[in-house]
């Protein structure tokens, strides 16, 4: 079977992938980064009264023909406690920011432009135009105005806007459910005793963090043994509750690499297997009914690179987020030899201090088993398949790592 080019594999994976159709109603506290399922139209007007923009005195502008002049202070209007009567000629009302401007008053004088010659009187030192320092009713929005269109991703300001518009809860797209299963007889959970020839299952935690940031809800299936029945049961479980199943390990050609055989036995479609990339070659993608399956290679760097390139865009698409170009242009920090037929994604560091663009330098050791090197990397440097030798300073592309 020939290797599938990376771009082709990405395109085939996203073919027909649409945002999850199910919706749910959630509270404002959980709204960050969720996608609005319906248009949010204002249920109220903001502000729904003329409000003072400053601390000072509500006055009739016409009273201030010649300043300084003294007015009688007849009461107070505070935020949440209006002045109930009408302001008459020669009168002023002490007022605070956000408080309703009383009937009869048409301007606010800021308190810095006043003096209090006595408790009953205020001396206005400068005139003010009618409407001065007043926020008119509906200044922000009116009932019926479009606040957040369906399909938008909630940002801090739009969450606050939803609250202001009268929504205690909001209908959003349900997050895609991504089940993650680490396969392998050698694996133990973090914190458990590690016996001879065993290792700690680590990859799933990094992949879960990536998928969650891309908009997924994670279903953690823990460790699944290298056993066709166990992997089959995991597939059945995912088909019943998840949108995507990500398996880690068992994707290659060894006698204990069972993901491919189990997909076949279960009648799942295998969309593609083996990508022209390094690391991450043995990745496979398939489907069982509505479930999408990504079989990632077990080597730590391989599984994380595959997740950046395949899990993230798939989850973002299913979550209803817009497709985005994650590639950034930079310059090589070192000379590099010609590349072979597999695109290479090198763990690299990024120096943003250069004036002519970011400088990317691959880390010394690129072995796909090295998590310590991955954790040090701040970028994945892309070397296209068949790329000729490159010189320091040549343009290159990279994905910044979060
Ligand atoms: N004869 C061949 N052998 C291999 C080939 C090949 O083309 N022909 N490809 C190699 C490449 S490239 C990769 S990548 C690996 C991937 O193999 P698998 O996906 O089958 O992964 P495993 O064999 O199960 O595990 C590989 C390695 O990773 C460790 N691992 C597995 N799961 C986890 C986990 N959740 N957390 C941490 N580490 C994990 C596992 O213990 C192994 O050390 O195949 C090559 N072989
Ligand atoms: O593709 Mo493997 O991922 O080279 O180690």
From TrEMBL:
Sequence similarity: Belongs to the MoeA family.
Annotated EC: 2.10.1.1
Q: Name one GO biological process term.
A: Mo-molybdopterin cofactor biosynthetic process
Single GO molecular function? metal ion binding
Q: What is this protein identified as? A: Molybdopterin molybdenumtransferase
Swiss-Prot/TrEMBL catalytic activity: adenylyl-molybdopterin + molybdate = Mo-molybdopterin + AMP + H(+)
Keyword Ligase belongs to the record? no
* Boundaries of every MoaB/Mog domain copy: 179-317
Could you tell me which species this protein originates from?
A: Aureimonas pseudogalii
Task: Name the domain of life this protein comes from.
Answer: Bacteria
Cofactor(s) this protein cannot do without: Mg(2+)
Provide the top EC class: transferase
Please provide, in alphabetical order, the Gene Ontology terms of the cellular component aspect for this entry.
cytosol
Tell me the route in metabolism or biology where this protein functions.
Cofactor biosynthesis; molybdopterin biosynthesis
Q: Which Gene3D superfamilies match?
A: MoaB/Mog-like domain, MoeA, C-terminal, domain IV, Molybdopterin biosynthesis moea protein, domain 2, Molybdopterin biosynthesis moea protein, domain 3
Query: Which UniProt keyword terms apply here?
Result: Magnesium, Metal-binding, Molybdenum, Molybdenum cofactor biosynthesis, Transferase
What exactly does this protein do?
A: Catalyzes the insertion of molybdate into adenylated molybdopterin with the concomitant release of AMP.
